[in-house]
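Quick one: structure for this chain?
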Amino acid sequence: MAARALLVIALILAVFGTALSASYTVGAPRGSWDTQTNYVQWTSNLKFRAGDQMLFRYSRAAHNVVEVSKADYDACSASSPIASFQTSNDIVPLTAAGSRYFICGVPGHCDAGMKVRIDVEEATPGGALSPVSPRAGSAAPAVAPMPSVEITPSTSGQAMPPSSSAVSVGTGSVGLYLGAAFTASLMVFY
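Got it. Here's what it folds into:
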């Protein structure tokens, strides 16, 4: 009986550990993948975790996304891409901890600032419970995510109502999983 209870608990923890992730629209809410957005500022108060994903939105006729090495990022060179994206609605999964480097491969765009470095942390045990929280020394408040909620920081550091998809936290089928886990635990104990 105790083994079954532990199995149910392990199942529930596994579901929570994989069900939550954050999706970040690059440059949102004030910009997108363009030459006007300051990506160093955009990433400064965000924490990216393994399991999250990046969404690059841009004009297909004007831009693209190229993942490159750090050396190519520093040199604004797209000559040896790790990956290239050209759909104008590109989803890039952040599968592991480490730094990822993205540039626009259109000549002159990277030099104009169209490049972003994404520092990915290990996934939080139990799921991504806080994909948006300030870095040390930041004045911005921590904002705990809610399913399907978009979080938009303002210049004053206060959270504003959603105006774009700056961050959305996907929960997948958490309700279905929890219902199934609850039903399974009732079956184990009766």
